[in-house]
Structures are given as C-alpha cells and as structure tokens.
Amino acid sequence: MAVDTLEKLGFSAGEARAYRALLFLGRSGVGPLAREAGISHSKIYEVVERLIAKGLVSKVFYGKHTAYQAAEPLILKELVSRREKELSEVKREVDALIPKLIETRVPEKRTVELFEGFNALKTAREQLLLSLKAGDEFLVLGAPRLANELWESWLLDFHKRREKKGVAMRIIYDADARVYGEKRKRFKLTKRRYLPREVTTPTWFDVFKDNVLIVVMHGEKPYCILVRSPQLASSVRGYFNLLWNISVE
Question: What is the rounded CA–CA span in Å between residue 249 and residue 133?
C-alpha cells in the first residue's frame, strides 16, 4: 500500500506509515509500531490518536496492557466517499463565492502576464472564459495539431462549457489539424477554417475581448503571454479577419 496514495486521502506521512505498519504487524503495542513505522516513540502516540479519531485504528485492552489494531483496508472506500461529499459541498460554496469575489476584485492593472506549462495555460484560458458572456466571440488563430494531440479532452470540455455560456468562436487551424477541426462541427456556435498548407504558425493567438493570449509551443511545453490591451486585441483581430478571408473551409 503506497504511502503517497494514502496521503492523497488526507493522511499525513506519519499516519500513512503507522497505518501501513499496523496492517503488517496486526495487533501491536507502541514500541514495535514506532519501530516498524519509523516514527519516534515521542510522536507515535500523537499519530495513533489522530488515526483513532479518523476511525482507522482502535485500541485493544488486555490485562494492564494496551495495543492498537488497524481497521480493515475496505474502510478506505468510505474515506473516498467522504472526501467526494466534502468536495461536492466545497464546489457549491465556491460556485456561490466566485461572483462575490469578482465584484470585489480590484481592477486589473497589469498589462502583461507570463505563464509556463499546461496547467498555467489552463488557468489563463479558464480565467478569460469567466469574463465572457452570451453573445461574446473569441478567436483562435493558428490552432496547431500538437496542442490538440496533447490536450484534446480538456479542449473539448472547454468548448462544451463555452457553448453553454452562449459564447461564439471562430478558429483558424493549421492545415494538418483538420481532423480536429472537423470534430468541432457538432458545436453550433463554432466556425472553423484552415490555413493553406504552405502556411504554418509556430505560435497561436487567442483573442478574448480586449485580451490576447499568445501561446508558443516549445516541444510539448507551452509558454504563454497574456496581454491586456484593447489596441493589441484590435490589431490581432484585424489580422485574424484578413487570414479568415484567405483560409479554406
């Protein structure tokens, strides 16, 4: 049983080692348990008490002695169910909190932000999606095949949520990404075209309102620049429309 898996369920490193050690030892006193778990004698009592509070360990009394015993591993499924319920409640609270936080947020003063890696790219795009409303349009210029190969599942989910908000989209794909563009046919608010084969774009641009997200692929790692500028957004939008007119369906 991997300690890191137990930690994902909310165990501390010490709790995970102690629980695993008790499963191996069976009923045990604190001395053998501390040695097997690699936890100092002075700390093992605190760790065991936390496990007892979680319902994962029980005390066993015999004569003047006290021992400890681990609950059956199947109890971990109950922990997962508990965490799922807690996360569901937290999600509802966060959904209710977000609009209030947006209202109280100080207007953004930064004009340029840098992001590195896929998770940062997701953060940037999700942040911009939150700012859009029904009737808005965003543009994607130069959508590369590699990005779709790497993140197609998230991209499709992004499109579903975008369309649910009533946000329209036009995408200009690289010619070799046509197979992914065709998958977007099912989205009613999405129009797509393809650059000529002799034209490739190592960089792609997202245009959201007065924002431009520039994404450069370095191998499989994206580097992103988010520029908040009405002037740049207008300029890129004009360039997009020029390319839209020469792109093919």
Answer: 27
Could you tell me the pTM of the whole model?
Answer: 0.58
Which phi and psi angles does 105 have, rounded to 5°? -65, 140
Per-residue pLDDT of the chain (249 residues; tens, 9 = 90+): 567 788 877 888 888 888 888 888 888 888 888 888 888 888 888 888 888 888 888 888 777 778 888 888 888 888 888 888 888 888 888 888 877 776 776 665 558 888 888 888 888 888 888 888 889 998 988 888 888 788 888 888 888 998 999 999 999 988 888 888 888 888 889 899 988 877 767 688 999 888 899 998 888 888 888 888 888 889 998 888 988 888 888
Are residues 127 and 188 part of one domain? yes
Pick left, alpha or beta for residue 63 (phi over 0 → left; psi -120 to 50 → alpha; otherwise beta): left
- Residue 204's H or E segment, with its range, is strand 203-208
Residue 226 shares a structural domain with residue 122: yes
Is there a single domain that holds both residue 158 and residue 235? yes
Q: Give the strand pairing for 57-62 and 65-70.
A: antiparallel
Residue 97: give the domain boundaries.
81-105
Split into its structural domains, the chain has a count of: 3
For the chain, the first-to-last Cα distance in angstroms comes to 54
Q: What's 31's domain CATH number? A: 1.10.10.10
Question: In angstroms, rounded to a whole number, what is the distance separating the alpha carbons of residues 74 and 61?
Answer: 24
